[in-house]
Amino acid sequence: MSISYARSVTSPAEAAASVNRPVTLSKDTATLVDQMRRHYDDGCFACGRENPLGLHLDEFSLDEGLVSARFNPREEYRGAGTSLHGGVAATALDEMLVWAGILDLRVMSVTAKMELKYRRPVQVTDPILVRARVDERRGRRLLTSGELLVDDEVCVEASGLYLITSDLAELGIL
Fold it and tell me: Which residues, other chains included, contact 51 with Cβ-Cβ below 8 Å and sequence gap of 6+?
C-alpha cells in the first residue's frame, strides 16, 4: 500500500507556515541532538552512540527545515554481496523522518505509514547522507519526505505519515 496525498504546499514560505515552525530556536541543533540521545540513554539503534550494533547516525544539521545526518555502514549491514540491506536503508530514513519533527518542530512522533522507492543499490563501503523534512502538519499528523544519498546521488526516497506523540517540552527536553 502506498501513501498518496495531495501536496497543497508549493513554496518554501508556504511550507514553513503550514507546519508552524518555531520562529526562533531556543537551543542549537547539536545541543538538542545530545539532549534527545541522553533522554533515551543513547541506546537507539539508528542514532545512539552507545548501541554497539547501531547505525550511529551523526553530524546532524538543520537548514531551513531540511534535517541531515551521515553514517558509514558496516559489513554487518549488508544484504546480497556487498549491497546495503534495504531494511537498513529503511531504518535510516525512518529515523530521519522522526528527527525532522524533532529538530524542526520540536515534537516527538511515531511512524504511521512509510513508503520507499529504491532508485539504485548502495554498497556497505559507501558513506551515506540522509535528509528529511516535514512537508506539512495537519493537527498531530506530519507528512514527511526524505532521501538517502551517496555522492550526491539519490539512492532511496521516502515519504511518510507520522503521528505526534508529544512536544519536547512535555518530555522535559526543552
Answer: 42, 43, 44, 45
What is the per-residue pLDDT across 1-20, written as a single tens digit (0 to 9) for each? 333 333 333 334 444 455 55
- Which residue ranges of the chain lie beneath pLDDT 70? 1-27
pTM for the full predicted model: 0.85
Q: Residue 103 and residue 132: Cα distance in Å, rounded? A: 11
Under CATH, which number does the domain 12-167 receive?
Answer: 3.10.129.10
Decide: 63 and 14 in contact? Cβ < 8 Å.
Answer: no
Q: Which of 5, 19, 34 is nearest to 142 (CA)?
A: 19
Give every strand in the sheet of 58-63, ordered side by side.
58-63, 66-71, 128-138, 141-150, 153-167, 107-118
CA atoms in the 13 A half-sphere facing the CB of 56: 11
